Amino acid sequence: MGAIVLVILLTMMLKKLAIYLEAQAINGTKCRDDLHKEKESADGNNYRDHHNIDIHHQYHHQVSRKSCSFCCSNNGAPIRTYALQELKMATANFRIRIGVGATSFVYLAELGDGKFGAVKRVMEERGGSKKIFLDEVSVLLRISHPNLVGLLGFCLEKGEQLLLLEYVANKSLFERMHTYHGQSSGILAWSNRLSIALDIARALHYLHSQADPPIIHRDVKSSNILLIDNNHAKLADFGLCKLGYDKPTDASPSPNLTKIKGSFGYVDTNYLKTGQVSTKSDVYSFGVLLLELITGLKSTQGSATLAEWTAEFRKNDDVEVLAKLLDPKLKGDVNLEQLKVLIDLANASLLENSQGRPDMSHIVDRILSCMEPHPHPPLPV
Which branch of life, at top level (predicted)? Predict the structure, then answer.
C-alpha cells in the first residue's frame, strides 16, 4: 500500500515538474534526481492511521535556493524540496515553537528578504508517520486557492518529516475570538465575521467542487482558520483530508470510532453514526463555525456541543429570539436580516440527514446575496 501511495505521489509531482519546466524553459535533471531520492527513502515503511492535527501557523531564519522546484505555491513562488540543514538554519534549530498539533510541532522560520514561513514537524513520537506526512503533501500539491494555506516546500531526510508552509500573520480565529490576548486586539465586528465566513465557504467550495478529485477537509474548526486581517482568512491543516468519497452501503452501520477523524463539537453527527464521510461532513462543521461566529462561544459548552446548546433558540422563527444568540460583545451592532440568513444556513448545514444539507456553492451564494451591495471582494488568485 505504501509503495502505491508513493508511486502515485511521485507521478503527480513529476507531471507538475514537467509543466513547470516547460513554462520556465529550464533544465530539470537535478530536480528529478532529488525528488526520486526523497521518495525512495520512504519505501518499505509501515504506515499508521491518521491522528487529529491542530496547528497554528507563523515563523524564523535564512534559507538558500539550491534545491529543486517542481510547481508553484499560491503566491506563485516555486514549491521545492529542502535539505534538512536548510530548515534547521531557517528555524534556528527548531528554536521558536509557535504551534502544537496532535502529531506535530510548528516552528517559526525566517526565509530571508523579510519573508517568513512555518515549519510543521511531523513527529513519530507524537503519533505521526510517513503516511500522514505524504498524504498531506499529496493534498497540498493538488490545491491552490487564496483562502487555503499553501505549501512552500518540504523535507524528508534523516527521519525528519517537515513541511514549510505559507505564513499567515494574525494567528487563528479561535485565538482571536476566545483568548484574552486575541480579544485585546479588539472585538471582531459583525461585518468581519460575515466576511470570514464567506472566505471559508469559498475555500470549502473549491475543495469540494474544483479540486480533482474532490477533497474533504474533515477538520474545519476555528483553530484551523488563520486570519490574514479582520476581513480575510485562510483554511489550514490538511493532515486529515480525504480524497474522494466513501461509497454508501446498505449494511447496518457499525462505524469504527477509532477511525473517525475530526474534532469534538465540529464532527458531523451522521459521520459519527455511520462512519461514512462526505463533503456534507465539512458542511456540518461549517454550520458549527457559523454558530461560533454568531454567538462568540466555543464549539463545546460543558458536555454539550454548541449545535445542541443553541438548538432551541436557533430553530425559532422569531427574530427577537434569534437575536438572543448574538455575541453580547457585539452590543447589538448587527444586521438582523444577515443574522437570519446565517442562522438559516447553520440550521440547514446541521441537519441530521446529511443529504438534506446544502452544497458549499449554495452557501457561498447565500452569504454573498445577503452582503450585497457591498460584499468584500475575494482575495486575488
Answer: Eukaryota
The 10s digit of each residue's pLDDT in 290-304 is 999 999 999 999 999
Q: Which three cell numbers stand for residue 52?
A: 487529529
User: How far does Cα 109 stand from its chain's mean position?
Assistant: 20
Distance (Å, whole) CA 252 – CA 249: 8
What are the φ/ψ torsions at residue 2 (nearest 5 degrees)? -60, -40
Question: Using CA atoms, how far apart are residues 217 and 207, in angstroms rounded to an integer?
Answer: 8
Q: Which residues pair with 216 in a beta bridge?
A: 242
pLDDT score for 78: 78
pLDDT tens digits along 15-38: 454 444 344 433 333 433 444 444
Model pTM score:
0.79
Give CA–CA dist 154/134, Å, rounded.
10
Domain range annotation of the chain:
2-166, 173-371
Supply the pLDDT for residue 126. Answer: 82
Which active-site residues does the annotation give? 219
87 in Cβ contact with 164 (< 8 Å): yes
Q: Rg for the chain (alpha carbons), in Å?
A: 21
Cα–Cα distance measured from residue 181 to residue 191, given in angstroms and rounded to the nearest whole number: 21
Q: Which residues touch 19 (CB under 8 Å, ≥6 apart)?
A: 71
CATH code of 2-166, in short, is: 3.30.200.20
Contact 78, 72 (CB under 8 A): yes
DSSP string, 149-210: PPEEEEEEETTEEEEEEE--TT-BHHHHHHSHHHHTT-PPPHHHHHHHHHHHHHHHHIIIII
CATH says 173-371 is which class?
A: mainly alpha
Burial of 307 (0-12, 13-18, 19+ CB in 10 A): buried
